[in-house]
Amino acid sequence: MMYHCTIEKEGEEYIAQFPDMPNIVTCGFSHEEALAMAKEALDGILAADISQGLEIPSPTFNGGYPVAVANHIAIALQLRALRGDQSQTEIARKLGLSYQAYQRLENPKRANPTLKTLERIAGAFGKELSVTIG
Question: Which residues of 17-32 are buried (b: 16+ CB within 10 A; e: fewer)?
Answer without folding.
Answer: bbbbbeebebbbeeee
